[in-house]
Amino acid sequence: MHEEAQIGTALTIGSPENDFPLKEAPSYLLIAGGIGVTPIYAMATELAEAGKDFQIIYCTRSANETAYLDEMRSAFGDRLKLHHDDGDPEKIYDFWDHFEEARNMHVYCCGPQPLMEEIKAISGHWPEGRVNFEDFKPVEVVRADDLPFDVELAKSGKTITVPADRSILEAVRDAGIPTVSSCESGTCGTCKCGLIAGDADHRDMVLMDDERDDFIMICVSRARDGNLVLDL
Ligand code: FES
């Protein structure tokens, strides 16, 4: 649309659809990771207005990188639990206490893939329909004509192959190297990584033009030609 729509172009539009609706429940647990707070904030607002029982767990890297921090604190008080992991995989929030026993509540979770996979893994014994997810990933991370390439990780001294159907981030994670991410769609900046060498195909919406020689968003970007050397 950015490339083709002009003033006067006729566009076909539809009404908004809600694929993540709140259902009636005795109480609610809302879980947000990073920018996944967007629907969670709206849900919490609706539940607060309706006088419902709910709690929010909102995980981000740091207070500075927490969207709507002040607004949510003042709107939800102690119903909002914040957790900052400083980008350290060792410090991620431990959700087990909330899921050990299946409760008569509904859970709504929106955030990066690893967070949602974690919640799916620990809620398998909950009745169907109680734990709900919204995958906000808006872009096709891998394209049909993508090719495999190698990435040399300068800090860990490893070289990994990024398959045609995986992102650098996924390949790094598959190799057991700890890394951080949030949106996994090239929009939040969490996975920013130093680019030491190589011709990168930048597909993110975060880096400024003058940063593109030195940094790469490994959740979406790839090698244009040849291999890459990253500061990882
Ligand atoms: S994880 Fe958000 S830009 Fe990569």
Write a compact overview of the structure shown.
With 232 residues, the chain is an alpha/beta fold. Helix content is 18%, strand content 26%. It is globular.
What is the strand and helix layout of this fold?
Layout: E1 27-33, H1 37-49, E2 53-60, H2 69-76, E3 80-84, H3 96-99, E4 106-110, H4 113-122, E5 131-134, E6 149-153, E7 158-162, H5 168-174, E8 192-201, E9 215-217, E10 222-230
Parallel strand pairs: 1-2, 1-4, 2-3, 4-5, 6-10
Antiparallel strand pairs: 6-7, 8-9, 8-10
The protein binds FE2/S2 (inorganic) cluster (FES).
Bound molecule types: FE2/S2 (inorganic) cluster
The largest sheet has its strands arranged as 3-2-1-4-5
Given this structure, which CATH class of the largest domain is correct? Alpha Beta
CATH topology of the largest domain, by name, is Rossmann fold
Oligomeric assembly: single chain
Strand fraction band?
25-35%
Helix content: 10-25%
Average of pLDDT: 92
Question: Radius of gyration from the CA trace?
Answer: 20 Å
The total of helices stands at 5
Structural class: alpha/beta
Summed up, the domain count is: 2
What is the 3D shape? globular
Low-confidence residue ranges: none
E-strand count? 10
SSE order, one letter for each helix or strand: EHEHEHEHEEEHEEE
